[in-house]
Amino acid sequence: MPADLLVAEPDEDAPEIPVDPVHLEDLRRARRRRRIKDIHWVDALYHVYLAALFGTLAVALATGAVGDTALSPGQVDDVTAHGPAVIGLLAAVAVGVGLRSGSRGGPLAVEAGDVRYVLLAPVDRGRALRGPALRQVRTGLFVALLVGAALGRLADPRFPEPAPAWIASGAAAAAVLVALSLGAALLASGRRLPRAAANAVAGVLVLWSALDVAGVEVGGTAVPASPGRAVGWLALAPLDLHVAAALAVVAAAALVVLGMAGLAGISIEAAERRTALVGQLRFAATLQDVRTVLVLRRQLAADEPRDRPWVGRRHHSRRAGWRRSWDGLLRFPATRLLRMLLMAAIAGLALRGAWAGTAPLVVASGLAFWIAGLDVVEPLAQEVDHPSRRTLYPDPEGDLYVRLLAAPAVVAVLLGLGAGTVAVVPGAGQVPLVAGLVTGVITALTGMAGAVVNTVSGAPSQGEASQELTMIAPEVAGTKTVVRTALPLVVAVVGALPLLIVEANDHAGRPLAQGALQAWVAVGAVVVLVGGWVHQREAIRAWWAEAMEAQAALKRSGDDEDDDESEEDR
């Protein structure tokens, strides 16, 4: 152990030093004043004011966009019967995420100096961590209350119950979800729950909830209600007030209290590793470097590729890009594969919701496929991450990148077919067969295209930024930054928009393909344009650099002429 980390043991035989009671009381008062000072009430109230202002505006706009088409009595009965199980599955996923995070040192990410000196000091480690933990729980609950209240306000026009009831139940359910996740993470971190045990408990909870949603029967007997149903009953309390909903609140509070009580058992090594990774992740997010954020998040979650592929395959193909892409995709860990399937299922459910009348859910579908696309394009991302190795290939950069996208495109089509299958399954919000499958595939491809734009663009270099600020007006450079940030998301979302045309044709009694076919062709053209941009990106950058250099040379020559004229005048 380094000498600066050694702590001297207290001498039990040393005489006690008398403490002046007046001085001790002064110390206590100063400690209370410091605590009050650390709260920063003015800043807190200002943040609450901004959150309330923008939150109210966002909810008002979203309410107008979603619409107020009320559900039929049959649909309300379906929500009452099946809604608690679906929300219970979401609660099981939240607890599972918390357990996995806690087994890897989360959810706290204290400063590196606190890890090195405060946690290794001869003080109560739980007392030192209680402040950051309380702040994290407080912030999470505050955000959850706002989001839950907004969701309750959006649900109110669809149901006959009054708005205050839905706002209260939505806020309570969202707060319980966040408390369950954070409490499970704190408990797993403080008790140093092994990763295998955390994954096993999370898997059992999610599987139980999934069987409950599906209504599976074992031996002629239905699967018992999952524990997460209590959260569902709380969220849908205006429809059917269930006494067991109070158990969700009790369980969430108990997990948070137990997690707070066991903070002293946190692993120093895990805390130091998490602190370093979270610091780098925040810096990468500031630079809008999505690729670095993704890599650091995988390190936080220990999401490492497998040593051996899932399926052994012989390399018969002469196409190196095709072969290397499949070698990388077949080494995805199980958690990454499950995440991709989950995003495809979410996209399919969002398409069902959009067909049922909630048009903004097409955005959720595109974003889900964009998240999945960031994993799908991993073969291309690995090549982008190693620019020095790329210079050893005789082929142009664009040709190599396009060849590495062939296998990811096949995976994206399969995910799109999965999402389309979820969308066309009979039930509430069922999408027509052809429209659902085509929209699923097209949205998956546009989601992958948006991920390709993020991956290939990377973080803006300091040289490019300074050159643009020198040659271009700052207003134009700022607009370019905004476009650079929003363009991948727009590309990802645009694939689901033709479904709204099909839905409008269905309501108007027109042929479903009227106008939608042209829209799908236009979306396909967007995907082709992204591929062409990837292929010709190096040539475009070279042309842009030459244009900037020519403009700089022209500016320098103009400055020289002005100097010569001033010399002649003198």
From TrEMBL:
Coiled-coil stretches noted in the UniProt entry, renumbered to this chain: none
Protein origin, superkingdom: Bacteria
Leader peptide range in chain numbering: none
Stretches that traverse the bilayer: 39-61, 81-99, 137-155, 167-188, 200-223, 243-266, 401-425, 431-453, 513-534
Keywords: Membrane, Transmembrane, Transmembrane helix
Protein name in the entry: Uncharacterized protein
Gene source species: Iamia majanohamensis
Organism lineage string: Bacteria, Bacillati, Actinomycetota, Acidimicrobiia, Acidimicrobiales
